[in-house]
Amino acid sequence: MAQLWGGRFTKQTDELVYAFNQSLKFDRRLFNQDIRGSKAHAEMLAKQGILTAEEKDLIVGGLDALKAKVDSGELKIEGEYEDIHSFIEANLTDMIGDAGKEVHTGRSRNDQVALDMRLYIRDEIDAIAEELHDLLSVILSIMDRNRETFMPGFTHMQKAQPVTLAHHFGAYFEMFRRDRERLLSIRERNNVCPLGSGALAGTTYPLDRDMTAELLGFDGSCENSMDGVSDRDYVIEFLDSLAITMMHLSRLSEEIITWNSNEYQFIDLDDTYATGSSIMPQKKNPDIAELIRGKTGRVYGALLSMLTTMKGLPLAYDKDMQEDKELTFDAIDTTKGCIRLMAGMLETSKFNADRMARSCQGGFANATDAADYLVRKGMPFRDAHGVIGRLVLTCIRKNCRMDDLPLEDYRKESPLFDSDIYEAIALKTCVDRRTTKGAPGAIDEEIRNAKAYLDNTEA
Question: Is 277 known to be catalytic?
Answer without folding.
Answer: yes
